[in-house]
């Protein structure tokens, strides 16, 4: 029996659409079973963990995971934008913190606006295709890019407080590309929790650097090291003002130290 869809019920409309893929997926699926099970559980449970931990509502989001990829979509509204950016920022942060012998998981991706339809058994989406190509063309490093159309839409959010929060989640890198600043979410947690996030984030980066000798792959984690160090300094500015000695000790523990070798390439010390 062939199931037919009623065309009157099909809505092919502009939505916020994200394409996200896992960095180093080949190494993950070839890992030991005990690690693979942890990875699968982490990827499968993360959105539920976010809702439980932060008491937030992400009911507007549709999340479809397949192999090393994920499609996230939601309605194009102020609340939809909030849920998309906040959920993906928390998802990146939670995944990037070391939770197995392989460290954590990092992502590349892109968020855009485009025509999108999905049902329980299919996705038909120009928005997803656009996000995929934007990611492949521009996302050289482990980051989720934000299309200009999304950035422009964020600036029209009516509530000034919400608009300010969302604008702070958008960072611009030296190559002028906008991306989701996922470690920005540490601003709203305690200093103790924040330190733990950066400790596990550093551990994940160092694990990936130790496991790879391909210069192109290492370049991605060197970029992450720079991002980690910059956010570390910004996130603990309040401690710097309150207790300079504690701030100095924290920097020693959590900063990723790098030097240049004889070829001019950076080498991570710790």
Q: Outline of this structure?
A:
With 270 residues, this protein is of the alpha+beta class. It has helices spanning 25-29, 33-54, 78-96, 126-138, 148-154, 160-168, 191-211, 215-235, 237-242, 244-254; strands at 13-22, 62-66, 69-75, 107-118, 123-125, 144-146, 170-172, 178-180, 258-260, 266-268.
How would you summarize the topology of this molecule?
Layout lengths: L12 E10 L2 H5 L3 H22 L7 E5 L2 E7 L2 H19 L10 E12 L4 E3 H13 L5 E3 L1 H7 L5 H9 L1 E3 L5 E3 L10 H21 L3 H21 L1 H6 L1 H11 L3 E3 L5 E3 L2
Parallel strand pairs: 4-6
Antiparallel strand pairs: 1-3, 1-4, 2-3, 4-5, 7-8, 9-10
Helix pairs in contact: 2-3, 7-8
Overview of this structure, please?
By secondary structure, the protein is α+β, with helices and mostly antiparallel strands. The mean pLDDT is 86. It has 2 domains: 175 residues, Nucleotide cyclase, GGDEF domain (Alpha-Beta Plaits, 2-Layer Sandwich), CATH 3.30.70; 80 residues. Strand 7 and strand 8 form a beta hairpin. The protein contains 10 helices and 10 strands.
Structural class: alpha+beta
End-to-end separation in angstroms reads 62 Å
Over all CA atoms, what is the radius of gyration? 19 Å
Name of the CATH first level of the largest domain: Alpha Beta
The CATH H-level homologous superfamily of the largest domain: Nucleotide cyclase, GGDEF domain
- Outline type: globular
Counting DSSP H or I runs of 4 or more residues, the number of helices is 10
CATH architecture of the largest domain: 2-Layer Sandwich
């Amino acid at each position: 029996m062939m199931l037919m869809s009623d065309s009157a019920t099909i809505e092919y409309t502009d939505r916020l659409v994200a394409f996200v893929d896992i960095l180093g997926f080949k190494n993950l699926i070839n890992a030991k079973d005990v690690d693979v099970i942890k990875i699968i559980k982490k990827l499968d449970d993360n959105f539920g963990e976010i809702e439980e931990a932060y008491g937030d509502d992400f009911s507007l989001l549709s999340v479809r995971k397949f192999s090393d990829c994920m499609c996230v979509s939601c309605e194009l509204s102020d609340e939809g934008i909030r849920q998309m950016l906040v959920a993906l920022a928390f998802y990146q942060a939670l995944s990037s913190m070391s939770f197995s012998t392989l460290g954590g998981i990092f992502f590349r991706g892109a968020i855009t606006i485009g025509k999108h339809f999905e049902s329980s058994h299919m996705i038909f989406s120009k928005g997803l295709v656009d996000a995929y190509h934007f990611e492949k063309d521009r996302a050289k490093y482990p980051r989720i890019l934000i299309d200009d159309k999304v950035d422009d839409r964020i600036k029209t959010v009516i509530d000034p407080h919400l608009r300010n929060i969302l604008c702070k989640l958008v960072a611009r890198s030296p190559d002028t590309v906008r991306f989701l600043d996922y470690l920005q979410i540490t601003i709203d947690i305690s200093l103790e929790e924040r330190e733990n996030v950066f400790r596990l984030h550093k551990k994940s980066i160092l694990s990936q650097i130790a496991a790879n000798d391909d210069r192109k792959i290492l370049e991605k984690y060197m970029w992450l090291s720079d991002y980690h160090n910059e956010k570390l300094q910004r996130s603990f500015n309040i401690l710097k003002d309150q207790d300079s000695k504690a701030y100095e000790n924290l920097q020693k523990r959590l900063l990723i130290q790098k030097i240049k070798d004889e070829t001019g390439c950076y080498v991570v010390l710790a």
